[in-house]
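Data card: per-record layout.
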Amino acid sequence: MTKSMVLVMGSMLLGFACSAGGTSNPTQFTGGAGGSSASGGSAAGGTGALGAFGGAGGLIGTEGGNTPSCEFVDILFLIDDSPSMRTPQKKLATQWPAFVDAMFDKLPPNVNLHVGMVTTGFFTGSCSETTTNCRTGQTPQEVDDHFIRPSEGNTMENGGQGRLYQYQGKTFFEANSSDTDRAPLKTWFAGAATEAGDTGCSYEFSSAGVAYTTDPANAQNNAGFYRDKDGVLVLIFLTDEPDKSFEGAQTYHDMMTRVKAGCGGDNCILTAGLITPCVQSTNQELWQFMSSFGKPPIAIGDIDGLATEYSKVVGDALAQVVRQTCDSIAVPH
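The structure for this 333-residue chain is written out next.
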């Protein structure tokens, strides 16, 4: 598979046709007609790429219209902190300021933003893991031994086990689309993303890292990050290895939709990522999770691509879909 960046904006904004299930190829994503599936892509009868935006008849709440906008946008980054991740973290940090500008420019005034980060780690200490054909080379028992749920004990890793990463005394950064000074948000996240480093365990639990932010054991550390009604949740993944999470995409999907139940569950959650291409091409566990919210990921790029590829994923196009989703789920004010 060539290292190419694929924007799913095509299926949402240009009306590209979607197939009815199965694994997507590098330039085409699956979608169906109503409900959601956690088995990779959208199953037949799933919502499909256009469903969350008002169907094929047109987008709801297009920019410049009179449709009320949502009040909140929560953006959660999953940052792989295993060995080899130093360069990708730096590339993300260089593109982050442009994404902040795009978000502020696309969103209407007075939308409150939360930006947080979590790592792939559920274990600290000596670990060595290999992958072959986008699968772990370790036994199920070895994988389980390196997966310490937060209810089973605290590894004390900053950002580990679903705990939001603490940087400069904050577990997440709060901003407003009406803020005139965007520099604090740009500086905070760029610093946090690069400080995460590459000394974490090589057993990367990407889906679990995101899902366990909702675990009751992490309630105190993560308090205040999620807003339910009238808010978009954006999950963005940065990882150069296949996911070792083994509890199932549906389990992780349900953990996430519980914190967005009042908003509407799947309709309020978007995913995007810079990942290794085999995750998509083999319908690997991470791809199943990212595709489980009734629509394909919004934007996908190759983590080994140039920084310009990062800008296409974490940039204007993603901000545009966030705005449209924000409008489509808005409740009357």
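Known properties of this structure: The longest helix spans residues 86-106. The chain has a mean pLDDT of 84.

See the next section for split statistics.
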